[in-house]
Amino acid sequence: MAKMNLLQAINNALDLAMASNDKTVCFGEDVGVFGGVFRATSHLQEKYGRARCFNTPLVEQGIIGFANGLAAQGHVAVAEIQFADYIFPAFDQIVNESAKYRYRSGSLFDVGNLTIRTPYGGGIAGGLYHSQSPEAYFAHTPGLKIVVPRNPYEAKGLLLASIRDPNPVVFFEPKRLYRASVGDVPEEDYELPLGKASVLKEGTDITLLAWGAQMEPLEKAAEMAEKEGISCEIIDLRTIVPWDIETVTNSVLKTGRLVISHEAPLTGGFAGEIAATIQERCFLYLESPIARVTGLDTPFPLALEKEYVPDHLKIFEAIKHSIHF
Amino acid sequence: MAKMNLLQAINNALDLAMASNDKTVCFGEDVGVFGGVFRATSHLQEKYGRARCFNTPLVEQGIIGFANGLAAQGHVAVAEIQFADYIFPAFDQIVNESAKYRYRSGSLFDVGNLTIRTPYGGGIAGGLYHSQSPEAYFAHTPGLKIVVPRNPYEAKGLLLASIRDPNPVVFFEPKRLYRASVGDVPEEDYELPLGKASVLKEGTDITLLAWGAQMEPLEKAAEMAEKEGISCEIIDLRTIVPWDIETVTNSVLKTGRLVISHEAPLTGGFAGEIAATIQERCFLYLESPIARVTGLDTPFPLALEKEYVPDHLKIFEAIKHSIHF
Amino acid sequence: MPTTKNANSSSIHTPTFIRGDEFHFPIYKVLKQDGTTYRGAVLPKLDQEKALRIYRTMVFTRVLDERMLAAQRQGRLSFYMQSTGEEATVIGSAAALDDADMIMAQYREQGALAYRGFTTDQFMNQLFSNELDYGKGRQMPIHYGSRDLHYMTISSPLATQIPQATGYAYGQKLDGGGHCTITYFGEGAASEGDFHAALNMASVHKVPVIFLCRNNGYAISTPSSEQFAADGIAPRALGYRMHAIRVDGNDILAVYQATLEARKIAVEQNEPVLVEAMSYRLAAHSSSDDPSGYRSKKEEEAWREKDPILRMKLWLQKKKWWSEEEEKNLQESLRREVLETMKKAEKRPPPPLDSLVTDVYDEVPPQLAEQLSKLKAHIRKYPDAYPKSAGGLKHG
Amino acid sequence: MPTTKNANSSSIHTPTFIRGDEFHFPIYKVLKQDGTTYRGAVLPKLDQEKALRIYRTMVFTRVLDERMLAAQRQGRLSFYMQSTGEEATVIGSAAALDDADMIMAQYREQGALAYRGFTTDQFMNQLFSNELDYGKGRQMPIHYGSRDLHYMTISSPLATQIPQATGYAYGQKLDGGGHCTITYFGEGAASEGDFHAALNMASVHKVPVIFLCRNNGYAISTPSSEQFAADGIAPRALGYRMHAIRVDGNDILAVYQATLEARKIAVEQNEPVLVEAMSYRLAAHSSSDDPSGYRSKKEEEAWREKDPILRMKLWLQKKKWWSEEEEKNLQESLRREVLETMKKAEKRPPPPLDSLVTDVYDEVPPQLAEQLSKLKAHIRKYPDAYPKSAGGLKHG
Ligand SMILES: Cc1ncc(C[n+]2csc(CCOP(=O)(O)OP(=O)(O)O)c2C)c(N)n1
Ligand SMILES: Cc1ncc(C[n+]2csc(CCOP(=O)(O)OP(=O)(O)O)c2C)c(N)n1
Ligand SMILES: [Mg+2]
Ligand SMILES: [Mg+2]
User: Fold this and answer.
1) At D288, is the secondary structure helix, strand, or coil?
2) Cα(D218) to centroid of ligand 4, in Å?
3) Is the ipTM of this complex over 0.85?
4) Nearest CA in chain B to C188
5) Distance, CA of B283 to CA of D390 (rounded, Å)
6) Nearest to C371 among B126, B297, B301 (CB)
7) Last residue of a domain, one of A185, A206, A228
8) Residues B159 and B12 occupy one common structural domain
9) Which of A255, B81, D57, D73 stands the most exposed, by the fewest C-beta atoms within 10 Å?
10) What domain count does chain B have?
11) What is the pTM of this model?
């Protein structure tokens, strides 16, 4: 065990992925000598050489196009997009190509060896172009897996699993936690399963669901609620696609109440998908409407970020509202 | 009044838009001499000259980048993307630029004069790259309006309104209906309001909601249901963003039941957003779970398109299931 | 120093704009239309066997295209795309490769696949989306692919394969096996952002890839004069410091020799090469298109006179490698084969219902399995409405 | 005929690959570092008033950059980007335009805005996201914009402004008012697909746009040698048949003159022009960056000796248009002004809560109005948690 922050855990996972399989290649803007603008790829070029860890030209559609080809060829491609806000130029390569490669070829070819890492979310005074949480844009795309870790331990295990999963994975890293989240992380190689949510705390009155950086305010709100005698079950979804319907359904069948939170805008966010599914599966058990606590239907702001963000107070209010419905 | 098919109605709307405002410019791949691969821009170059209706090079990100600049400059830009499946290379220009232009500049600049037209949906044996319904990808983007007409009359009125609306609009045209849908269309200039759903038929037992080409199987299913004594209220959403929550809510408050249908895959589709919102607003009035009848969570197929598509029979079954819940 | 490359740029003190008007990319030609070769031309070493393999493939492609367009017109097939006029470009280049080099094509390169030995059956199974289609009936006709033949399954979104080819070739370089990748694309697709990304990354990362642009004058209805203002695609290579050559795309010998040498550069020096093949799309863009709305018969006629197949035939005949008798037999046997194979293929059933949900992921996730089982129940309820799959269900 | 442009391409019969190695784009220089000019150099006509307007703007930009970086280091400001070393490129080019020409910049072009008269107050209001920021506190510091000064609000996603500039200029051409658009971008951003789209469309549609590439050697940590393999950006113009010129970006006279002539081509001939200005990013990429991890002090020093501001000052002094006394006064007054203005700006309150939801659309749609009113109720309940906005709510 070692104390690592989230960035170190990711760096460590990449190191192990490259050490354990010499077909693994890491690349992206500034990931070479510099080790990435957040330093997630520090020392990898030094250790594994320029052929396996390198800077690319500044072109996201090229990075993912290149990665698709490299993965189809048989290498394990781990591509970094510097900020999730800048993943959109690669949207076509991800949504029309990565996601459909296996299906359209009848499995003659696939890019299952592809993993796209990208920092997402607010909390760094980044304004509308260094704060977005675009997971829902990708969640509507069969063929992709989408993973978001909440802390260093999870980040390492989920990233190693993502890199080795035989499907293309978009791996969103909560950049607000890069240095802020520190925890015990085993030094050896381990994987955490994709597609499985994790119940952080059992409870009986209400289910609280989120992923990534949003787990922190969720847990804080739960603490506040517990003080008022509300027993909260807390779930980290971990994988957005395919999501663990069973775990969430079972929890809501028990509690009868659900609050979902994400930073992205409300309309078209992934909480909508979850609410739609759960209202169907738990219809007769729901004691109050499923609540969504999310960003506003606007671009991400700067000066008023605090007001915009779904913080613990807003979640706490939603919990109380649900309980007293 | 004239009989027009949907394509002619669109061509007529473009003609009127160009005639009534000489700042209006239409462009895209093959829209010039040829009039577009579906012929939606037929004769416009002839009538208004090459400067106002022209072929672009084959580059969607360039088409929308160019359109953003042209609209910001003060012209009315009507850009065609040949198939909605090919809109993704322009995703960054639409989602990061068009949608955020006004907000990020504090309204110093905007691209409200932009309209993007693109044919979408299945029904032409197009397989996974000539059949997609990507409206939900855009629906998660504050700043855009998203419009889908269901027939020639609606297409003309909504397209004229979209072109003149002071916000960027993505206008999805149901290509399966281009020639198949024929109806009476006034020859003069008229607009239909954006953001307003349209109740096609009142009913008391269940609300059926869809948009665009999906209205046809919806109405067919309603007919089947009516024969079994089920009174259906049928709503065409028309505008996906911002959507008419009030009309849908009022309908469901009355009927207590809701079936939503779209061709796009289930997960992350816009029906999820609607279901999430309506379960919250109509919680105490719902008599059965809100049902979604959609494409499967796979890319769009070819040989088995009929099996994949949410047809009238699947909708009919969902209606019965909802009624007998 | 980052800018040392410019160190030997000369200084000037008068502002001079360069547009390159005076610069014209020369075009490499070997074979004249009458089957003779240009004086002093560098001729490829092409033995009779290989030459005939090429020629037979060209004729096969032409016959296939004619028959399948006819089948489309009869309503037997939903869609088709011909490569008429561009056979020398595609087959000549494919013939210059190692058969294990990777091919990442656009869609008009059936000739390259045929050259590698894709059978008529295999073509037909794809075209008719039947249960034997490698693509499991999911893509429109002409979206072929073959793992055994190192031919990447075609994808409709244009130009996406170009940066993928750069990445694929980078992987080949890491593997060190001496192979390269060729990617084909039209002069229209070369306008996409992916083109720029691909060529720039290939030249920076020194990757063994051949970018073969089929400049056939049109992108659907858009003439190349509305696609770019420059003298074709080849001059773009100068902007990437990439080897480039322009070749007469209707000249089988020039295409073959140019690609052979391009491959040498790619594989031996790990450097990308751009090949621009000048040709003409003699047929309509696809079976859905009618070119009479945007170009003249006269223009088409002028190019029909430059037919690449006829040109090669005359050369073969001059070399006494081919006779009219052999030509007649070949044509007849190919027509017969295509028709018979077509009949077989169209009778075969479509892929099974399960193919709707397989290959989305390596395994079918629970949600999707649930969707399939609901669908099956639904089809069992309304078997008449789903004739393609209902039968299979009863017995399955 | 679509391929007639190649008609006068010469035929060759030996396969010859062209890479353009021998071709080096010359660099236009006028002013030496000691303030003298090259013999025979074409000098711009620049009167004293204009020269001093340029010079004062350069010094202002340098002072602003120094002070604001210091403020960032003190934690008064969240983020900053300096243009140190590139002042001549940006201000020299802006000065060659008509003040009503459109500027669509990347982010390191504060000098162009300052040249047009953006006030120190206006800069500060943006940097401190206060209620007077035109952008209403929504974007990070340095994302300036001004409608009055025809300076498009900066957008972080790189290269998106380049095809927009093509479209903007197309609109100007339709209006026929004799104006053009200039778009600035780094050599890194020039790798994006949008770059290719923009230049190709501009040359096909003949629009009055100047593409000004600031080739400053780095894109964050990535040296230009890992950005492209070619001799800079200028040679790419040949691939679009676009006028291009390379200029010493630290040479105010060369930049000014080259842009003046580029503008003439753009406006009089309706043709796009590519200008590549060779310079060096002397400071860190941004206040978040530390270049010591990827480049040497020695390299930086070599470029510091080519300081464009000093170079211009020496020229002005030789012309007796500027004295050390004036220099001292200017520096002092600018420092004072920047500091005083900063103090004012940082004290101003942030934009009001309503600015969270305005400008998403022309009008606030009902859903969003509802979200805002819920938010207001929430903030009233927990005023201490939202100190920036709670106060405004009480009184508002
Ligand atoms: C991204 C994308 N945009 C548009 C299309 C529609 N489309 C299919 S083929 C074609 C023209 C391609 O022209 P070119 O690249 O010159 O190839 P050619 O057909 O001449 O062989 C177009 C616009 C597409 N398939 N993909
Ligand atoms: C689409 C996109 N990708 C990545 C980034 C992150 N980023 C910001 S600046 C920069 C480097 C830009 O370099 P260059 O264009 O040379 O301009 P310079 O900073 O040298 O002036 C990068 C990678 C971004 N802002 N947008
Ligand atoms: Mg073409
Ligand atoms: Mg730079």
Assistant:
1) coil
2) 4
3) yes
4) B58
5) 32
6) B297
7) A185
8) yes
9) D73
10) 2
11) 0.98
